[in-house]
Amino acid sequence: MEIGNWRSVAGMDATYREARALGVETNIAELEAFGFTVVPPEKNGASKDFAKRLMAKVAQLAAEEDTSQVDLNKHENRPAYGRQLFHLLAKDPLFIEAAMNPVVRTFGSYLLGRSYLLYSMVAFLKEAPARSTPMHCDSVGVPTPLPFYGSVCNVSWVLTDYTVENGTLGMVPGSHRFCRHPTDFEQPKFVGGPMDEAMVTPVLAEPGSLIIFHGNTWHCTYPKTSETARAHIATAFCRNYINPAEDYSDLSPDLIKPYGDELARLVGRKAWQGYGAEGPKLDDMLLVRPAYQTMYG
Ligand SMILES: [Fe+2]
User: Which of 7, 125, 196, 207 would give a disulfide with 294, using CB separation of 3.0 to 4.6 Å?
Assistant: First the structure.
């Protein structure tokens, strides 16, 4: 059917038209039904060598980084194994291009509303065999019961082959509707828990794919048994009232400029929150009002 300019849907009309134009309606249906989906490289609109360029940049940053400066590395009981490279957005314009990809942003606005914000952008790199990441969902700090809608979402650029041997993500299909965090009793056997592994399905994806999942979806990683590198970049978005995990106040205006107001808004430069006695900036407040798009432009 034709999607009109419908004032009752808080911007979903525009987002859905974008999804249709990008050819990802089936992925939206899969997200609704199962809580996750995979967009193959030929549908993400990026150049053929985009994943290769991202991988080269991640490898370069990993080689240059002083690992002792990463707080997580000091903890024995860290939740994820291998390297995690944080705050990518400020490190290279290539990561901004990855976050601003139209398919990536369409899923952010579909799952979180058009006032969504960037929450974090982190590379997960495993160069050697590694243990599993335990079952969890990405709604960090949101107490059970979770709302049925996502507070956050994860749009991950896959940079290498994602297979079981390479320690791909494991999902519990439909768990976005459980509306709670998994307990210790729901850890699969390959993580060391009692849950039947048949509940978990591996996400198989080639380099350049996007793995997208709802913030409530239970996921873990398979133990990585291969010697080949495995990497993805998790671009996480959140609803407007969630406190983003990463602080983008150090992001240079020169990096924001080419992408204009939309990137400025995504990284909090147009946040209406945080005002003092002068009160909120009305223009910024109007930006996040659902009626704004239909009433004013
Ligand atoms: Fe996660």
Answer: 7
